[in-house]
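Researcher: Re-running this chain for the archive, since the previous output was lost when a drive failed. Same request as before.
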Amino acid sequence: MSIFERINRLFPVWAILLAVIAALVPEFFTGLAGYIKTLLVIIMFAMGLTLTKDDFARVVKSPKPIAVGVVLQFLVMPLAALLVSKLLGLSTELTIGMVLVGATAGGTSSNVMTWLAGGHVALSVSMTMVSTLIAVIATPLITLLLLGQSIDVPVLGMLMSIAQLVVAPIVLGVVIHHLLGSHIQRVEPALATLAMAAIVLIIAIVVALNAGRLSTLGPIVALAVIAHNGIGLAAGYGIARALRFDTPTSRTIAFEVGLQNSGLAVTLANQFFSAGAALPGALFSVWHNVSGSLLAGYWKRQSAATESSTAASSRG
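Model: Regenerated structure tokens:
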């Protein structure tokens, strides 16, 4: 095992460590806020370098997982948000924030966690793109149905953001992989380490930027966000397995359902409701990166153990 693979296996440890440091000493990271988009582009480019056009061709030929993932995305997460809010007795303001998180599309974090967990990255990217397009209509409609509130979603801004931060760097990576595939394969563990470092830094920056808000949140709100995220991950994986999708596909769907575009939820809450309504989204931004990191690390270790066992059996 290379040094990069050893470092990558400790991904959840680095994520938690940096998150704790950022919460205790936020000034170490707040000045880096302007680099979040750059770091995300680096992650997506590194991911694209590991993909081929055939990966996306297979997704187009088998659209069922995309349909299942997107349906679960806009069914499970909004209803889970409302249910958790009601069960925990959250205020109207916080309930609005929870539902906004549930009604948004899958976040780009799902693509990264899928890659690190050994899922189907091309499928994950495709689901995120499809859910983002559908969210243009679904987010305000779901919000209206569940809360009786009507909001305007920044359509052009959402699409431009996805194009610049996700599509463009991944496409560039795929093109370079096509040209230099044999060379890329040799450095894939190093690419994963680069992406992991960028993710951990993003987590630290997000925690630092929300350190003040996080300290004002009661444990009941934290419990609501953790439960909401957990329901999404569990439902995505469980239903996918029940539909007899393979393990990598089920993991991919789990991340797509459970990891939301909470940044958009925060923006919408601030624009159309109140600062208080933005708190669930802010906390979700932090938590889903930490929970996603932990789950990705666990699933990656499971895959590695299975591969080792299979190799040992074949030698025996």
